# Entry
Amino acid sequence: MRVVGDNVPEQGIYPIAQALRMAEEQELDLVEIAPNSDPPVCKIIDYQKFVYQQRKKAKEQKSNASKVVIKEIRFGPQTDEHDFQFKLNHAKSFLQEGSKVKAYVFFRGRSILFSEQGEKLLLRFALELEDYGKAEQMPKLEGKRMIMMIAPNKKK
# Structure
């Protein structure tokens, strides 16, 4: 196996027994870093310190990951023009701040008969927001709701 590390006098290929003896002499551990390479790579280090650094890296990566925020906008099948424009302006601001928008039309009672009106409304909504975001998912009926997802455009 190939032995590397800051504490190794000569980095190179050693038999397992000799590598373990070298690690024992320095009161450190022999840790396998790349088991799939040929020959496998091991490092002479303090294992507890190694595990601590791995956890620290994982935590840092998790904190740097972007969180997806979804804002919801609700319409009725007979939403008036003024209400539509008002909600459109809200959606524009949500998309500009980088949030996804989940627009849905909620059908109550027998209003489910007007599902094509709801679909037209959502398609018009997506068309109006074309400059700010793109439709991730076309309108689809789930129970008494017709849902559409709009993701913000990537910032350049």
About this structure: The chain has a mean pLDDT of 86. The domain at 70-152 is CATH 3.30.110.10 (Translation Initiation Factor IF3). The longest helix spans residues 47-64. Residues 77 and 115 are 7 Å apart (CA to CA).
